[in-house]
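Bench notes, afternoon.
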Amino acid sequence: MNNLSSYPRRIICLTEETTETLYLLGEQDRIVGISGYTVRPPEARKEKPKVSAFINAKFDKILSLQPDLVFAFSDLQADIAAELIRRGVNVFTFNQRSVQQILEMIMTVGRIVGCSNKAERLAADLQDQLRAIERSAARFWRRPTVLFEEWYDPLISGIRWVDELIEIAGGQPIYPEFRECQAAKDRIVDPADVVTRDPEVVIGSWCGRAVKKNWIREREGWNSIKAVREGQLYEIKSALILQPGPAALTEGVRQLHAILAHSLNVEVDASLMPRERCDMSLGFAVQSDGAASDVRRAPQ
């Protein structure tokens, strides 16, 4: 067994995905601080001090916790990372943007804390779950076209790992050309162009804000879009899909798959159904044990 003292013992996670990864690896005792936006797992929010938002941090509080390592994410936290480095703190910044890179992030975290075998098993299990979703989606009689909204004004779409998960779940993203664009400003969509591309399904995940379906319906010209005409408007909570970590590869992709199956009136095996609260228009609720129960009314 590895000696705990041989690896970082006091870790601060500035984004949720590394926090969730350490909990899944059973290494949560190493965490001494987290992002204030962390909601997964729920116990982390209750147990751990909050030391940052996404693009700013409480540097004095971080230093008071005496971390031997800080996990950060992407160029958006570059200024935080630079300031911590200037103050003598070790910082490891991830930049995962694809499904494969998310799996690599998990394995890297495992190596850093000395539990490579557990991390490899976790990554393999996540891959198995994705393959099961992919096999289920192969039964679809067609692949619905999908607009996934990360933000509503300006309209932003095409983030890479979400597009890849939509494809795994059985859909066809309408802005695949954006997936190589890292910055949100490079993925701004003209709402008039969406009308032209005419998606069959619209999924909103407005980065911490509740999706207002009426706002979507009332956009100029959108009443002609097939998704709007046929009521195929859905929401996935951003914590489940817009964090490039385990949540997106589990509950996030399950909800995507359930939405696409619902749009095609295709049944999904119970083992692949969502396990957390999801859009009520899907017609089922998730019970406390994680099982999905049908809440649709019988025909009158």
